[in-house]
Amino acid sequence: MRIKIVNPNTTLTMTSKIGACARAVAGPGTLIEAVSPDMGPASIESHYDEALSVPGLLAEIVKGEQSGFDGYVIACFGDPGLEAAREIARGPVIGIAEAAMHLGSFLGRSFSVVTTLERSAGRTWELAEKYGMARFCKGVHACEIAVLALDTDPDARKVVTETALRAVEIDKSDAVLLGCAGMADLCQEISDKIGVPVIDGVAAATLLVESMLRLGLRKSGRGEFATPIPKVYSGILSAFGG
Ligand code: 5HY
User: Fold this and answer.
1) Could you tell me which CATH class the domain 97-200 is placed in?
2) What spacing in Å lies between the alpha carbon of 216 and ligand 1's midpoint?
3) What angle, 0 to 180 degrees and rounded to 10, lies between the N-to-C axes of helices 12-25 and 201-214?
4) Is 90 helix (H, G, I), strand (E, B) or coil?
5) Model pTM?
6) Residue extents of the structural domains in the chain
7) Cα–Cα distance measured from residue 18 to residue 46, given in angstroms and rounded to the nearest whole number
8) Confidence at residue 42, expressed as pLDDT on a 0 to 100 scale
9) 2-95+203-240 and 97-200: same fold?
10) How many other C-beta atoms can be found within 10 angstroms of the C-beta atom of residue 168?
11) Partners of 112 in the beta sheet?
């Protein structure tokens, strides 16, 4: 089976890290390809960034369909473009936030989320509500580290770990979810240090897509997530037209 991991931001170093984390858990016979769109924001830290990430993300899903990918992961904790991607993909499309939250709900009574900037916390609460996970989510705690600084700030690992520890102390939660695809490589290290399970959404979503494919589960071709009605899209979006 072939799974396409789409990092909706255009930072290729982050994309290759995400791909390595997905490959580390994928089963034998599962081919992982991790990509960034040709267009879009270098990182996603606002509603504006998220909106501008969606056309490039969808273009990657279109390309994936043309080259026969079986399933997709949207590797950004805002799960941007998730429903639109599901409309145009035949196979499963899973966002890393939804995967992490559902998996976290199986581990105990509650989880905490460690996010990058405080301004991203509202989106995480919104997704928890949307996915029916708000009753499990006890807190969203910001490290105040920008997405791309996760790889450049020498203190990043320490700050993320300290934030995770603080989250568990404050929330008394049973698990911690890493609220950025760029934290995927910190999962095991943090888990060893804080004494509760830590979930990386990239690995969680990859295995969820793999499991759905093994079960032969694909979206319903009818109703809300049926293929969009062909129409003209003008201007810079004209390539998206039928
Ligand atoms: C992410 N932004 O996972 C989110 C995290 C965030 O570029 N990749 C990004 O802070 O919203």
Assistant:
1) alpha beta
2) 30
3) 50
4) coil
5) 0.97
6) 2-95+203-240, 97-200
7) 21
8) 98
9) yes
10) 22
11) 139, 176
- Report how far residue 138's alpha carbon sits from residue 172's, in angstroms, rounded to the nearest whole number: 8
Both tokens of 179, joined, read 């609220």
Ligand 1 binding site (Cβ under 6 Å of any ligand atom): 9, 43-45, 76-78, 115-116, 120, 147, 180-182
The residue contributing the CA closest to ligand 1 atom 9 is: 44
Q: How far is CA 237 from CA 36, 115, 144, 242, in A?
A: 18, 32, 34, 11
Whole-angstrom distance, CA of residue 94 vs CA of residue 85: 9
What 8-state DSSP symbol labels residue 99? Answer: H
In this predicted structure, what is the pLDDT of residue 45?
Answer: 97
H/E element, 52: helix 47-66
Residues 220 and 158: their CA atoms lie apart, in Å, by 44
Nearest to 22 by CA among 209, 215, 212, 175: 209
Residue nearest to atom 2 of ligand 1 (CA): 44
Q: For residue 73, which amino acid is it?
A: V
Along the 242 residues of the chain, how does pLDDT read in single tens digits? Answer: 999 999 999 999 999 999 999 999 999 999 999 999 999 999 999 999 999 999 999 999 999 999 999 999 999 999 999 999 999 999 999 999 999 999 999 999 999 999 999 999 999 999 999 999 999 999 999 999 999 999 999 999 999 999 999 999 999 999 999 999 999 999 999 999 999 999 999 999 999 999 999 999 988 888 999 999 999 999 999 999 97
Closest ligand 1 atom, residue 53 Cα = 7
Q: What is the CATH number of domain 2-95+203-240?
A: 3.40.50.12500
